[in-house]
Amino acid sequence: MAALPIVFVSAALLMTGAVLAHLIGAASIASFIAADRARFLAAVPQRIIANIDLFSIMSMPLFILAGEVMNRAGVTEALLNFAMSIAARLKGGLGHVNVLTSVFFAGISGSAVADAASISNTLVPAMHKSGYSLSYAGAITAASSVIGPIIPPSIIMIFYCALVQTSVTALFIAGILPGLLMAVVLFLANGYLAHKHDHPRGESVDLPEFSRRFVRAVPALVIPLVIMGGIIFGVTTPTEAAAVAVLCAILAGMVYRSMSVSALYEALKRTASLSGSIFILLAAVAIFSYLAGIEQIPLALARLLDSLGLDGWKYLLLLNGIFLVAGMFLEVPVALALFVPLLVPPAIASGADPIHLGIVIVVNLTLGMVTPPFGAALLVVSAVSNAPYWSIARAALPFLAVQLVLLGVLTFVPEITLALPRALGYVN
């Protein structure tokens, strides 16, 4: 059990500004020595390579690059205008447009923060100008941004699969229905609040204008269809689909005439930086996981939980609480690296499905980003829109409430998550 304090010591030292990967790696190696397991250190390089030398992980930098290229390719305006032509005419229309735009973005970037920043810069001012309070516009933007990592492609899901050694394809497919349900509950909440606060309707476009906006949005809309269509029907692996997504993103930028050599270079630099930070974190986690296996920490934790009566739905509730709080305070990769190697194996050993657990954990972590007092999505929206943080946080509470209800349903009704991958033969 000498390795058990690693997570808590690393989390404490993280508050000092130290790099998490360095902390986990150093603490793990020190624990090998403290536990008189130094002779096993010779196998550490092999364990690191084994953990990151996976074909599916290659999709991570490619999906990051596709998202970075799309963010610079001028698709925001095209998707926003198309969403407005669909939903703006409804009561509270711009709120519905906000959610629908997040659904479109989810199939491209898969990042809650990127979604929140982009929409805060474009749609929040438009909503405020149309008569919505700045806090409400910021709140629905933050709430809808969590759809990004749930609907595939999702960098968070790939990271989880690398830690748990489960199927990226199955988890991607499992995320489709929960992501769409998240959009539905936000549509319903916005509709209710729109009638309660008498929010205005937006523009109503005629058929020729709708057709023009649709045609312009096609290059952006086709990318998620290509990605998921190839994966679902077995034409491409997630890694191959990610490579196709990069090519489609570059072509979309050329169609929108906003892709330049300098923009592509910046996208490549950003991708290299993000990918490097993720892979070094995976390497550090591999050392920790190796020590945890030697010390049989997951088995000991499972026995402890069993002795406390924390099995089944009680353990799922515990996981929900831990990952929801972790999402409030930590970056998502950090939270995954700290808690998944310890908390997920006992759940799987007790009969939980790793795909279902993956969706529950992803939803928890993303909802933590819109949970005060430290929700990252709330902070991003506040910074970009110049709206007071606490006014956004208060306005986001009704949306957070319905999202937590959906989280509960997803937690205790696994079939919602597993139905689609099971029907397609990816889950037994």
From TrEMBL:
Location within or outside the cell: Cell inner membrane
Keywords on record: Cell inner membrane, Cell membrane, Membrane, Transmembrane, Transmembrane helix, Transport
Source superkingdom: Bacteria
Transmembrane segments: 48-66, 103-124, 136-160, 172-193, 214-235, 241-259, 271-293, 313-343, 355-380, 392-413
Record's bilayer topology term: Multi-pass membrane protein
Residue span, TRAP C4-dicarboxylate transport system permease DctM subunit domain: 9-416
Subunit and partners: The complex comprises the extracytoplasmic solute receptor protein and the two transmembrane proteins.
Entry similarity comment: Belongs to the TRAP transporter large permease family.
General function of this protein: Part of the tripartite ATP-independent periplasmic (TRAP) transport system.
Name of the protein described by the UniProt record: TRAP transporter large permease protein
